[in-house]
């Protein structure tokens, strides 16, 4: 008669977690892909400046804020000297007034080096060309609520003169 060895498993039985516990909330990924710093701008007030070289056509990051209705956005901008509001659709806007994102200080230029893209309600900023360290990030704001009544201060050779 042979000897039979029995394996004794000393490990505790597996713990079965509810689905919600398995899918624990992770913090959202950081949408800022390149370092950007804020400082005084020759264009207007504060500006967003590249703190590292940014290659052409790369996503720089996002401007985040409170998602509100366009109607509420129009109410909030009345009487404000500095407006950090971006319409993302005919019904929704992003109010970046309380945002900590450095990109919210991206100033307008008639010859911009970045472009704003609205994707799924998010405001993303992409480099239109290679951007050097220390260069101010600018975007063409396009149509604004100023309707051509605000003097443009971008200083570009092809400046349209107004926003």
Could you tell me the strand content as a percent range?
25-35%
Decide which structural class fits the backbone.
Answer: mainly beta
Tell me the CATH topology of one domain: Beta-clip-like
Tell me the quaternary state: single chain
Strand and helix map with partners:
Elements: H1 19-22, E1 36-40, E2 46-50, E3 59-63, E4 66-69, H2 70-77, E5 85-87, E6 92-95, E7 107-108, E8 114-119, E9 122-127, E10 136-139
Parallel strand pairs: 7-10
Antiparallel strand pairs: 1-2, 2-10, 3-9, 4-6, 5-6, 8-9
Summarize, please.
With 163 residues, this protein is mainly β. The chain has helices spanning 19-22, 70-77; strands at 36-40, 46-50, 59-63, 66-69, 85-87, 92-95, 107-108, 114-119, 122-127, 136-139.
Q: Key features?
A:
163 residues; mainly beta; Beta-clip-like; four-stranded mixed sheet; three-stranded antiparallel sheet; 27% strand; globular
Describe the overall structure.
With 163 residues, the chain is mainly beta. The protein has a domain at 30-139: SET domain (Beta-clip-like, Beta Complex), CATH 2.170.270.10. The protein is built from two helices and ten strands. The protein has helices at residues 19-22, 70-77, and strands spanning 36-40, 46-50, 59-63, 66-69, 85-87, 92-95, 107-108, 114-119, 122-127, 136-139. The strands form three sheets. It has a four-stranded mixed sheet, with no helix packed on it. Strands 3-9-8 form a three-stranded antiparallel sheet, with no helix packed on it. Strands 4-6-5 form a three-stranded antiparallel sheet, covered by helices on one side. The longest helix has 8 residues, at 70-77. The chain is globular and about 70 Å long. Residues 4-9 have low confidence and may be disordered.
């Amino acid at each position: 008669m042979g000897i039979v060895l029995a394996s004794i498993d000393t490990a505790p039985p597996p713990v079965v977690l509810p689905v919600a516990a398995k899918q624990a909330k992770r913090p959202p990924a950081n949408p800022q892909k390149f370092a950007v710093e804020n400082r005084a701008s020759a264009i207007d007030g504060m500006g967003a400046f590249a703190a590292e070289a940014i290659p052409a056509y790369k996503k720089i990051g996002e401007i985040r804020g409170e998602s509100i209705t366009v109607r509420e956005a129009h109410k909030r901008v009345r009487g404000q000297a500095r407006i950090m509001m971006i319409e993302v659709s005919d019904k929704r806007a992003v109010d970046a007034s309380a945002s900590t994102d450095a990109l919210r200080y991206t100033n307008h230029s008639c010859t911009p080096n970045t472009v704003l893209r609205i994707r799924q309600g998010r405001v993303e900023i992409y480099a239109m060309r290679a951007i050097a360290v220390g260069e101010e990030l600018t975007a063409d704001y396009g149509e604004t609520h100023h309707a051509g009544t605000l003097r443009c201060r971008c200083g570009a050779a092809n400046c349209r003169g107004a926003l």
